[in-house]
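Why does residue order matter? Because the sequence determines the fold. Keep that principle in mind as you read this record.
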Amino acid sequence: MNNQPGSVEAWIDARIGVAGDMLLGACLAVGADLASVQRSVESATGGTVSIGSREERRGSLAATRALVTQLDPLASARHRNLADITSLIRAAGLAAPVEESAVAVFTSIAAAEAQCHGSRIDEVHFHEVGGWDTIADVVGVLAAWHDLGWPAATASAIGVGAGVVATEHGALSVPAPAVAELLIRAGAPTMAGPLRLEAATPTGAALVAHLCEGRWGEQPAMTATRSGYGAGSADPTEAANVTRLILGTPLPSAAGTDPACEELVELTCNVDDLDPRAWPSVVEAALAQGALDCWHVGVTMKHGRPARQVFVLCRPEDATRLRQLLFTHTTTLGVRWRSTSRQVLDRRFVEVVVQGQPIAVKIGESDGVRTVAQPEWRDVERAARVLGQPARVVLAYAQAAALKASGDPRHSP
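Structure:
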């Protein structure tokens, strides 16, 4: 494919789970060239691994299963450290983004393993993730991503599964320690289930974290062009064991052309059965958890019932956490959301003095031209109490002082 970097948008839907082979299957499902992937994998593994694919069903969904066949199982059994794997990758003649990303992914896994086991990164010997099949998964996914045009990726919350998994370190709770450490380091939103198995593997977690580079949340604004499912090896009954990948073209937006603009998410829900005294705590909790703004207004619902409609404005990476906050702090049964954009003025604070009382004033400017000078209300109230004057009078003095201090032409001495 000949896409230019940044011309393709991707959403990795890993809410059921993600493993290296699942993500590879999803990449092949949306059109990554299998032959190109195979060439990269052969170079990295010395021709001891074959990559294939076939269509399988997971639940009611048609999905692509990536097949990694080891032609020399004895060679794969060797335990390798980070230096071993890095040497293999560096000597493979891979495309530069694939080579650097593969080294970065294995380095992140080694760092997580070292943290979990209390060792140095150079002392970590890979077991499950050191075989040819895992090297093939990592190189295969990155080669496929390169073939797809290296999309700018956003990833959903990661479904880690539940239960206990058998490893070379013995039985471990899900998520396995390395998976938990990788996702913590990446700042990834995570959740258990719905599968009672190891739904997220270290390889899958490291790949997603590397590709999305901290962009976590719901599907970004795009014109979707392709969608595909990568099948996991297990076929449980409780949910389709797949990782979904959606590709598209980014929608033009003000945030894409104006550095003063940014893409945000607006969450909202209607609530008609919450004690009105609880609403201040809802707003305070949302702001404390990273919301950029939170407000609520009166609405009338069906049967003429009065209700409140609450809104939360946040960055995309905070949307999952704040959506859960609305479920926790209100009685809503559902939350809606939409992508939105905002433009903000350059902001700074100055301090003015009104009859001996300091008051902070927020200044808003556009291209160096002041458009807003707004005293902080709490400072105004405090000064008014000390001076024994009405707050509106102190506010007027503070605004005039701010305009005078800046030489604003609207100020008349």
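The chain is about 35% helix and 30% strand.
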